[in-house]
Design a protein that fits this description.
Elements lengths: L7 E4 L6 E4 L9 H14 L1 E4 L6 H8 L5 E2 L13 E6 L24 E8 L7 E5 H6 L3 H7 L3 E5 L3 H10 L12 E5 L1 E3 L6 E3 L6 E4 L4 H15 L5 E4 L6 E5 L3 E5 L8 E8 L1
Parallel strand pairs: 2-3
Antiparallel strand pairs: 1-2, 3-14, 4-16, 5-16, 6-14, 6-16, 7-13, 7-15, 8-9, 8-12, 10-11
């Protein structure tokens, strides 16, 4: 664990996740504070802040200290702030946006580096989010499985049924773009560009098959990997409060927003960064 001079870090689990205390995300943060936040982010993979009541412009300004905000594919952001997506689940709706295990938009040639999610309105119960560590998912594979995956590429698609449904049902403008299918190929095992550690880069939300293999041939291996990479010992669970903000490293994590608050409204503001 690292020592910090300007922030206080409270780990959320032994697998990943940490709450950062002593930071006002509205403020013009000194470079030393930003450096320590980034160091914590790389070490713990996802970091959380509480009591951050940020307007969209303020959330964007904070996000820019860690990357370049980008618009979410196929989804319309706020009119004045197109990089900010308002994720809303209304009381009568059954599906939530992204309500399966996934990494964000891995169907793009260059998926986002990370994302920031800010809680604006929450149900009285439920609505936690799970995160999983893809370093651990890779490192705990057998030697034989690692060898097999080393040179394989995975086809990732925006049209995989579960992810597409959660997107189209939940966000304005998504249904109009439902016919647009984005696909890309990525190595099944990636090396994180900042840490140098190997990452298992498949996910239930978007991975459909291995390159040069059929879906039927790929399914047994992918099914095992999807189960393996979200084992409880690789995860943390975050309970939101209004003003809570998460920032995760999309290169080495997955997340799953739990859909257990039927009959209540939930509003979040999210920004992707590259």
């Amino acid at each position: 664990m690292s020592d910090y001079q300007h922030i206080r870090v409270e780990p959320l689990s032994t697998a990943l996740g940490a709450v950062i205390h002593g930071v006002d995300c509205k403020a013009e943060l000194p470079d030393q504070v930003v450096d320590e936040i980034r160091k914590t982010w790389l070490e713990h993979l996802v970091v959380f802040f509480h009591r951050q009541f940020l307007a969209p412009a303020e959330q964007l300004a904070f996000a820019r200290r860690f990357g370049e905000p980008v618009e979410y594919p196929m989804i319309q952001g706020m009119e004045e702030f197109p990089e900010v997506v308002e994720v809303i689940k209304l009381p009568h709706e059954k599906h939530n946006f992204g309500g399966i295990w996934h990494s964000d938009t891995t169907y793009l040639e260059s998926p986002p580096t990370g994302a920031l999610l800010l809680a604006q309105e929450l149900p009285p119960v439920g609505g936690d989010t799970l995160f999983a560590n893809m370093y651990l998912a890779y490192e705990t594979l057998s030697t034989g499985m690692k060898s097999m995956l080393e040179n394989l590429k995975v086809v990732q698609s925006s049209a995989k049924a579960g992810a597409a449904r959660s997107r189209e049902d939940r966000l304005p403008g998504a249904a109009a773009n439902a016919q647009q299918v984005l696909e890309s190929e990525h190595p099944a095992v990636k090396i994180h560009p900042e840490t140098g550690r190997r990452v298992l880069f498949v996910n239930y939300g978007h991975s459909i098959r291995f390159k040069d293999m059929t879906e039927a041939e790929s399914k047994p291996i992918l099914t095992y990997l999807f189960f393996h990479q979200t084992r409880p010992e690789f995860t943390c669970r975050f309970q939101w409060a209004v003003g809570s903000m998460a920032m995760w490293d999309n290169r080495c994590t997955q997340h799953n927003p739990i859909n257990d608050y039927q009959g209540f409204k939930r509003v979040m503001h999210r920004i992707s960064i590259k």
